[in-house]
Design a protein that fits this description.
The protein has about 80 residues and is an alpha+beta fold. It has three helices and four strands, in the order αααββββ. Strands 1-2 form a two-stranded antiparallel sheet.
């Protein structure tokens, strides 16, 4: 769970690549940690990146949506 917390903290700042997870957090299974975070309710996008003829995943945290508050009349507060 420590790796998941470290990766979440990283995702809150910038996207993460598998090589970053390996070098910064000694995480060999980034996709598994991303799956754990998704199961915890975090919305994480997966982008396929191609560089020098190689393809790999980049993960980024979706922006949080602000909750809509409703008046007792049912009208939203903006």
């Amino acid at each position: 769970m420590i790796q998941s917390n470290q990766i979440l903290k990283h995702l809150k700042r910038i996207p993460i690549f598998p090589i970053q997870a390996l070098t910064d957090y000694v995480c060999f299974r980034l996709a598994a940690r991303i799956n754990d975070l998704r199961n915890d309710g975090y919305n994480i996008y997966t982008d396929t990146v191609e560089k020098n003829g190689k393809r790999f995943a980049q993960y980024r945290l979706a922006p949080r949506k602000r909750p809509i508050l409703l008046l007792s009349s049912g009208k939203p507060i903006h």
